[in-house]
Specification:
By secondary structure, the protein is an alpha+beta fold. The chain is built from 6 helices and 4 strands. The chain has a 4-stranded antiparallel sheet with strand order 1-2-3-4, with no helix packed on it. Helix 2 packs across helix 3 and helix 4 runs antiparallel to helix 5. It is elongated and about 60 Å long.
Length: 173
């Protein structure tokens, strides 16, 4: 599949046609789809977003930033559930307090979130604060005995760069 021609914002009478291209799969390129959804009127974007399941690889994850800014948690979940990041286990009151990326058996990067993601209602707390980023033996709440001392220092620099890019993409402009 080749790239779609550069996306230009269609005039009002062309937006329906662009949405139809999106629906029937003629708009192939994930960044083009993301750009269209970020700028399409609400009545066109929301139904398309609900059925959109792109194959988001780490090199396209940045394309989702405008969507996260516009639509919030539902896109944030989409962008990270398609990568190596996993949402944490549901804790008290159905709240997930962390996301994690298992790099190797016994080595996991954990990002603790506050107030956490409410299972089944991800929009309840659209603003999350990163409390802590750490390397541990397993995902979970921060427990000093699980922390791998010097964990980031022992990682491949390219992997650390990917982690920093992902963490940067968590922030909304």
């Amino acid at each position: 599949m080749g790239r779609d021609p550069a996306l230009r914002i269609p005039a009002d009478d062309e937006r329906e046609e662009a949405a139809e291209r999106f629906r029937d799969g003629r708009m192939h390129y994930v960044p083009t789809q993301a750009a269209f959804l970020a700028q399409a009127p609400e009545h066109l974007a929301r139904p398309l977003l609900a059925d959109w399941h792109p194959d988001v690889t780490w090199d396209f994850a940045h394309s989702l930033r405008p969507l996260v800014a516009r639509f919030g948690a539902e896109v944030w979940d989409l962008s990270f559930s398609r990568t190596s990041w996993r949402r944490g286990a549901s804790q008290d009151n159905g709240i997930e307090h962390w996301i994690s990326w298992t790099l190797a058996p016994g080595m996991t990067v954990v990002v603790n979130l506050d107030p956490g993601i409410v299972v089944g209602y991800v929009d309840l707390n659209p603003v999350q604060t990163i409390e802590r980023v750490w390397v541990g033996r397993a995902p979970g709440d921060h427990v000093p005995s699980l922390v791998i001392e010097g964990g980031f220092a022992d990682m491949d620099p390219v992997l650390v760069s990917e982690l920093l890019t992902d963490l940067t993409n968590l922030t909304v402009p």
